[in-house]
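Order emerges. For instance:

***
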Amino acid sequence: MEQKHITAISLISILIGLATLYFTLPEKFEQTDIKIKGTIQSVEEKEKFTIISFKTKDVLHAITFDKTKVQKGDEIEIYGRLQEYNRKVEIIADKIVKK
């Protein structure tokens, strides 16, 4: 095969691959308001926010920008919104209530 043919086939393959990826990747995750209950597995305080890992059926992560007095083992109810971060779903907590 000539170099021109190989180059053309390569470019066509790349374009088909990119088009396939574009149409098969999920759309941006839309923010959805939720209320969810769970048991805290861990609390990690950072300088500007706190990450709370809690268990429902799966382990989820909630981010709060307010100081909170929760600890491992607490039963909580989180009011917030779902958000995608680094291709993972997390909850941005507006309110956390101990149960």
Q: What stands out?
A: Residues 3-24 form the longest helix (22 residues).
